[in-house]
Each structure stands twice: as structure tokens, then as C-alpha cells.
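Check my protein:
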Amino acid sequence: MPGPRPDSIINSGIVDVTDATGLYVALPTEAIFFGLFLISKLLEKETALDDREQRAARAAAIAANGGGPPPSNAGKAGPGRKSPA
């Protein structure tokens, strides 16, 4: 049989919480921050996975391109301009 729940102790009158208004603010605030902490840990794992996928995709693109750097005039010819080559 599990032990008493914290809310049953407060509701039974064993613990006097009439002047503990900070408790009513602190408990929900702690729960919110704990939830944000859990979400950040989940996102931390997802971003690490995304970083690995991006590095693999970049390495595959470089290997498919022949492994060399992009041409020096890449991106310099804008709309309406002719490429110097």
C-alpha cells in the first residue's frame, strides 16, 4: 500500500497551511519549470540527432559534388545578370 499523498496530508489538517500562501504559488511554479526542463531534455536529444543528420547530408552532398569547393563565381550572378563564364 503506498504512503499518504501530499495533498491528503494538507487536506486532513495535520499540517497547518493557512498562512502558507507562498506554497500555493511555489508548487504550480515548480511543476511548470519541471515540465519545461523535461521538454528541453527531449529537444536536446532531437537537436543532437538533427545535427548528425545535417552533417551526414552535407558530407554526402560534398562527395556527390566531387569533393571540391564550389566555383568561385557561385551565387554572384543574380537575376537578370549573365554569368561571367
